[in-house]
Design brief:
Shape: globular
Helix content: 25-40%
Number of strands: 5
Distance between the termini: 32 Å
Strand content: 5-15%
Largest sheet: 5 strands, antiparallel
Number of helices: 10
Mean pLDDT: 87
Structural class: alpha+beta
Strand order of the largest sheet: 1-2-3-5-4
Low-confidence stretches: 1-26
Order of helices and strands: HHHHHEEEHHHEHEH
Amino acid sequence: MISLFHFFTIIICEVRHYVVPLQHKHNNLKMDQKRILKFLRQVMANNNREWFQEHKKEYEAARAEFERGVQQAIERVVTFDPEIAHVKVKDCTYRFYRDTRFSPDKSPYKNHLGAYINAKSKKALRGGYYIHLEPDHCLLAVGNYWLPTNILTSCRNEMMANTEEWLKCVENKEFLKYFGNEELWSTDSPTDIDSWDQPQGFGLAKLKKCPSGFPKDWPHVNYLRLKDYCCWHAVSNTFFEGDGWLDEMERMFRAAKPMMDFMNSVIDDYE
């Protein structure tokens, strides 16, 4: 199972030998998600360096399939978000090797493939689009997380100053269809990564109470409790089969983009 610590930075696939002209040559081929998930299941059962070295060609084949899908996703996203037109696959993906220095889990490899499509960089604070392939835990997500306190304060002030605009972003029919989850608003609901296990939602981490300095009686105080502005929607293991997933991905990403743009307009002042 993934962890909040790794969200948006745990995303695999070290891109090597990536040749731009070949992107379009193979672009009408479908991503083989069965091959990807099969390999990831094998890694989960054999997460050690000896096994990996013996099956490195299988990893490279799975990585190539994933890169194909990422390239197709980028080309689709750019049709409604031209800011990411310059982004390449290598800008979105990460090493497959885990950083185990500060983790009790010393497994050397990750058990998922992911890509974070961000106009500035995969390490930027501003929001972006996330694709995650993991056996029995595939999902799509949009937004950002782990914002510094000063930026969170500015984001909260912005939503209070422009409440009507903010509510249009997060309480419209399409956003709620893909990311609505009333259970997560309860003060008894998880306030950390446990939220990530929900089928869909908005806000991975949140405060139990209204943050200091903000009015507790504000009608939309739950939004002030958020410590990030990430929305997600879990999908099945078969979601990425064929090429129809690009259409559904686009619908989800379009639904979340106004929320992301609202917050990026604040975050960009700090980057």
